[in-house]
Specification:
This protein has about 270 residues and is mostly helical. The chain has 10 helices and 4 strands; from the N terminus they run ααααααββαββααα. The protein has one domain. The strands form 2 sheets. The protein has a two-stranded antiparallel ribbon with strand order 1-2. It has a two-stranded antiparallel ribbon with strand order 3-4. The longest helix has 28 residues. The mean pLDDT is about 90.
C-alpha cells in the first residue's frame, strides 16, 4: 500500500510540474523542460558509463542544452533560426574532443555521446515548435498542442497498461518487453484516440482529423519509443533508467514514448502546414 501511495503522489507531482511548465508562461516552459532535458541526458550517460562506456558528459549535455535554448530563442522571437547551428558545431566537436581524451574505444564513446543528442536532445528541442505557432511571423505562445500531446500520451500509457493487464494474451515483443501485449496496444490506442477527440473538441487550434492523426502517431511511435528504451535498459542490464521518481524509476522511463513520438508529431504539423 505504501508503494501505491508513493507512486500515486509522485505521479501527481510530476503531472502538475509538467502541465504547469506547459501552460503558465513560455519562460516557465523553458525552465521546466530544460531541467527535464538535463536530467534525462544525465541518466542516459550514467547508464552508458555504468555499462563500461566513456561518453563525453559535458559536451553531450552542452550540445542538447544549446540546441534547446537556441530553438527556444528562435520560436520566442529573440533571434533567427540559423543561431541553432551552434549546436551542429558542438556535435562535430565531439570527434575532436575524443582525439584528446585518450580513452579506450573512442568510436564507441563518440557514438554513445552523439546518441544522447539524437535520442534525447533533438526531440526535446523540437518541443519548442509545439509550444509556439505562427512562425516565423508572430511567434505566438500556444500551449494547447503540447498539452494535448502530453495528455494523449498519458492516456495511451494508462490505457495500454490497464487493458493489457486485464486482457493481454498475445505478446507484442517478448524478446524486449515480455509484459506488453497487442491487447494493451489496441486498447490503449482506442483510449488515446478518445483523448485526442476530446482535446479536439476543447481546443480549436487545429482540426479534429489532425488530433486523430496525432493520436495515431503517438500510438505507433510511442510504442516504439517504449520498446527502444526497454532495449537500451536490457543492453545496459538495468531495470530502470534512474531513481529520481519514486515508484516510477527515472526521467527517461517517463519520457520514452514522448521522446520518440515528438519528431514525428512535429514533422506532421509542418507537413500539414499547421
Amino acid at each position: 500500500m505504501k508503494s501505491f501511495w508513493e507512486r500515486a503522489l509522485t505521479g501527481l507531482v510530476y503531472a502538475i510540474v509538467l502541465i504547469g511548465g506547459i501552460i503558465i508562461h513560455p519562460l516557465i516552459f523553458a525552465l521546466v523542460y530544460l531541467a527535464l532535458l538535463v536530467m534525462a541526458l544525465v541518466e542516459y550517460y550514467r547508464m552508458v558509463e555504468l555499462a563500461g562506456g566513456k561518453p563525453q558528459y559535458f559536451n553531450g549535455i552542452a550540445t542538447g542544452v544549446t540546441f534547446f535554448l537556441t530553438l527556444f530563442g528562435y520560436t520566442y522571437g529573440l533571434w533567427p533560426l540559423y543561431v541553432s547551428l551552434i549546436s551542429v558545431l558542438l556535435l562535430f566537436s565531439t570527434f575532436v574532443i575524443e582525439l584528446y581524451r585518450n580513452q579506450p574505444n573512442p568510436l564507441s564513446n563518440i557514438a554513445f555521446t552523439l546518441m544522447g543528442f539524437f535520442y534525447i536532445g533533438l526531440p526535446m528541442g523540437l518541443l519548442n515548435f509545439l509550444i509556439f505557432r505562427n512562425l516565423p511571423q508572430n511567434h505566438t505562445f500556444y500551449p494547447w498542442i503540447l498539452l494535448g500531446v502530453t495528455v494523449i500520451i498519458w492516456a495511451y500509457d494508462s490505457g495500454a497498461y490497464l487493458l493489457g493487464t486485464l486482457f493481454g494474451k498475445h505478446r507484442l515483443f517478448p524478446r524486449i518487453s515480455p509484459k506488453k501485449s497487442w491487447e494493451g496496444v489496441i486498447g490503449g490506442g482506442m483510449v488515446a484516440i478518445g483523448a485526442g477527440v476530446i482535446h479536439g473538441l476543447v481546443c480549436d487550434g487545429i482540426s479534429m482529423i489532425n488530433w486523430i492523426i496525432i493520436s495515431l502517431i503517438i500510438v505507433v511511435f510511442g510504442t516504439f519509443g517504449d520498446l527502444i528504451e526497454s532495449m537500451l535498459k536490457r543492453s545496459f542490464n538495468m531495470k530502470d533508467s534512474g531513481k529520481f521518481l519514486p515508484g516510477h524509476g527515472g526521467i527517461l522511463d517517463r519520457l520514452d514514448s514522448f521522446l520518440y513520438a515528438t519528431p514525428f508529431i512535429v514533422g506532421w504539423l509542418f507537413f500539414a502546414g499547421l
